[in-house]
TrEMBL record:
Protein name, per record: Amidohydrolase
UniProt-listed SUPFAM superfamilies: Composite domain of metallo-dependent hydrolases, Metallo-dependent hydrolases
Listed transmembrane segments: none
Highest taxon listed in the record's lineage: Archaea
Length: 466
């Protein structure tokens, strides 16, 4: 007998042999995958002896998606910073808005983002850096109640700059080094490992906002606590100019020098890197979070993902935040990943759909150091499973489910979601969150924030508003 039995059309397992099972089924019991195989074999044991039977013969069943770069506090900032490159985007729009947040508004943003991720197939994610003014404890406790898996980085900083520009961080986001570091330790002691779904990481700010001493302190403490570190790196050319001019090191060399490489590190964007740096990432087992929509929208450049993969780098996917992407839909991000590499290299075979799907699932699990429990549908792994409805014109004829998911699907095609063996969305309706309440709270919170900050109160359109 199983708690949940899914009678699927196609099962994309992402197991070690990457099996795709036609007319397959998955049995879930006590939160874990108990059986996976052909329907005709498993039906006799589970079809009539399970608490919940999901008939998914016209669906694709696959592991939940893992988003390795999320800004929970930017959910309210969509369309508030369009048409700007990174540093003006941060300095003039995003940081002033985030520096004006009140805890209830930050929580409303986190709720909105989490709702969107669950409804578009994300079952685990990495938050890149929360600050004290957001009310971190309330956000962590909400995330636990939502049912999602989350590695939550707390921002750590002791300077106010970005690359060669000093003192540009908005005063509302400035925190002393001891305060931000010690609060990370407090959060780690309180929440890390909660139900094996919540983890607390270090989120040092970008070079220019953290001293060398503090970077090294973070590296040492993360190793001692056996937790992770995530940091933006080499997103724009200014990052390279800063580390080379100031320290005589390229960005990845700089990170490695400070102990910020290794299997417990997720470096984000990593656009402007050399061949030697790519090899160093592969040799150290450092993960990279690729965020193509953000890189394209902010004109930051195209990361060398196909080169990284061929050098053994664990590359995963991230959506980034509301103002740099405008959605948190990781299914859409797969298509952008698949299209950007052929454009960058002028090679149609620069990357395959299978590689992109790995980036969104098992590679993401490896980046979050949870590939022993999730990222694939395998016996004894926790049941983090999504069901995609392919009975739609844009997904027919279904002659290649992997290609269709990467090139043709969107998060709106996700029908059911199971996290840790718990059904959190069924027939597009979330079972752990009040969708209407979250959207209403977010709308109210956003306008309070815009009015207080004096930003984003009018649409940035060139057409007449009447």
């Amino acid at each position: 007998m199983a708690d949940i039995y899914i009678r699927g059309g196609w099962i994309i397992t992402m197991d070690s042999s990457r099996r795709i099972i036609r007319d397959g089924a998955v049995a879930v019991e006590d939160g874990e995958v108990r059986a996976v195989g052909k329907r005709e074999v498993l039906d006799k044991d589970y079809r009539y002896y399970s608490d919940i039977v999901i008939n998914a013969e016209r669906d694709i069943v696959m592991p939940g998606l893992i988003n390795t770069h999320v800004h929970l506090a930017q959910g309210l900032l969509r369309a508030c910073a369009d048409y700007l490159p990174l540093i003006p985007w941060l300095k003039d729009r995003v940081w002033p808005l985030q520096g004006n947040y009140r805890p209830e508004e930050a929580l409303a943003s986190a709720k909105l983002v989490t709702l969107e991720m669950i409804k578009s197939g994300t079952t685990a994610f990495l938050e890149t850096g929360l600050v004290g003014r957001y009310g971190v404890d309330n956000i962590v406790e909400f995330l636990h109640g939502s049912g999602i898996r989350a590695a939550i980085a707390r921002h750590v900083m002791d300077l106010k700059g970005y690359a060669l520009e000093e003192n540009i961080l908005h005063e509302g986001l400035v925190e002393p080094g001891d305060t931000s570091f010690n609060d990370t330790l407090r959060l780690h002691g309180k929440y890390h490992g909660w139900d094996n779904r919540i983890w607390i990481w270090f989120g040092p700010r970008t070079p220019g906002a953290v001293s060398l001493e503090l970077y090294r302190k973070i590296s040492e403490k993360a190793k001692e606590l056996k937790t992770g570190i995530t940091m933006h790196l080499a997103e724009v050319r200014d990052d390279v100019e800063y580390t080379v001019k100031t320290f005589g090191k390229k960005p990845v060399e700089f990170a490695h020098w400070l102990g910020l490489t290794g299997p417990n590190v997720v470096l984000v964007h990593v656009v402007w890197v050399s061949d030697d740096e790519i090899r160093l990432l592969g040799e150290t087992g450092t993960s990279v979070s690729h965020n193509p929509s953000s890189n394209m929208k902010l004109a930051s450049g195209a990361a060398r993902v196909s080169d990284m993969l061929s050098n053994g780098v664990n590359v995963a996917l991230g959506t980034d935040g509301g103002p740099s992407n405008n959605t948190y839909d990781l299914v859409r991000e797969m298509k952008h990943t698949a299209l950007l590499q052929p454009l960058r290299t002028l090679r149609a075979d620069a990357i395959r759909a299978e590689q992109v799907l790995e980036m969104a699932t098992i590679n993401g699990a490896r980046a979050l150091m949870i590939d022993n429990i999730t990222g694939s549908i395998e016996i004894s792994k926790r049941a983090d499973i999504i069901v995609i409805d392919y009975w739609n014109p844009h997904l027919h004829p279904l002659n290649n489910p992997v290609s269709h998911i990467v090139y043709a699907a969107s998060g709106h095609d996700v029908k059911h979601s199971i996290i840790d063996g718990r059904l959190v969305m069924f027939d597009r309706k979330t079972l752990t969150l009040d969708e209407e309440e979250i959207i209403e709270e977010a709308e109210k919170a956003a306008w309070n924030l815009y009015n207080r900050a004096g930003i984003c109160r009018e649409p940035d359109v060139i057409w007449p508003l009447v």
